[in-house]
Amino acid sequence: MTKILVTGAGGQLGSQLLGRGDSAGFDLVGLTSAELDITDAEAVGDAVEPGAVVLNCAAYTAVDAAESDEQTAHRVNVDGARNLARACARRGARLIHVSTDYVFAGDASVPYEPDAPTGPRTAYGRTKLAGERVVLEDDPSAVVVRTAWVYTGAGSDFVATMLRLQRERDTVDVVDDQIGSPTYAGDLAAGLLELAGREDVPGGVLHATNSGQASWFELARAVFSGVGADAARVHACSSAQFPRPAPRPAYSVLSPAAWAAAGLTPLRPWRVALEAALAGLPPVCD
C-alpha cells in the first residue's frame, strides 16, 4: 500500500484528502502545520520516508496579508517548498506540490495552459511562483498542480460565506468582473489521489480545477439557488467597489488539457460539483 504524507493537513484540501485515503487504497498520514513546520529543514527530512508520496498542501495563503508580510509568505511558500523538494529528492520520495492561479497576471481571455507566461501581480502569487520553481529545480520528478477558487462550503471560504450571508442578509453584492473555475476541494482531493497512484506521470506542471467557468457573482447565485434561496437577492457589482490590498485576477481560468493528456480523470463541471458539495453539508440550525 502506497504511503502518502499530507502536509498542511489541517486545511480544507488536506482534510478532504485524509477523508478519502482509505477508500482510495492509500495509507495516508496527515500532519498539520503545527505538527510539521515545513520551514524547518531538519523536521522535514525526518518526516519524509523513502518511497513515499508527499502531497504538499501547506502554504501561506493569506493573500491580502502577504502584501505587507511577503517575508513570511516567502519563508513558507518558497523555503518550505524547497525543503520538501530536497528531502524528497534525497530520500527517493515523490512530491506533488499544490500551487495556484495567482501565478498568472489574470489578463488572458482563454484558459491558461501550464506553459503559459506567468506574471503574478501579488506578493502571494510571487511567492507561489518562486516555490514552483525551486520545487522543480531541486526535484525535477515533482509534479506541481495549480488549482483555483477552492472551497468546501464549510468554515470561511467563499461558498461558506455565501451560505451564511443568505441567512443573515436580504441582499448581497458580489463582483461580476472576476472570472475563474470554482473547484470543490473534495473533487480536487480525488484528483490528487489519482495522480499519487500514477507513477507514469512525469515531473512538471499540471492544472486541476472543476471544468467550466464563472464569475463570483454567478457562483454566489448558484449557491443561493442550491439551497432554495432566491438568487435574485445576489446583486452584481464591480471589483472597484470592493478594493483589496492584493488585486484579484480578472481572469484565472486554468486549462485542463494537460491533466487529461496525462491520462488523469477530468474533474466534473463546477455546477455539478457545487450541487454535490451543498448536498453533503450538515443542516444548519438557526
Order of helices and strands: EHEHEHEHEEHEEEHEEHEHH
Total individual domains: 1
Radius of gyration of CA atoms, rounded to a whole number: 18 Å
Strands ordered across the widest β-sheet: 2-1-3-4-5-10
Task: Report the end-to-end length measured between terminal Cα atoms.
Answer: 44 Å
CATH topology: Rossmann fold
Indicate the low-confidence ranges by residue numbers. Answer: none
CATH superfamily label: NAD(P)-binding Rossmann-like Domain
* CATH architecture field: 3-Layer(aba) Sandwich
**Proportion of strand residues:** 15-25%
Instruction: Give the biggest sheet.
Output: 6 strands, parallel
CA-based shape: globular
The level 1 CATH classification is Alpha Beta
**Residue share in helix:** 25-40%
In total, the number of strands is 12
Number of helices: 9
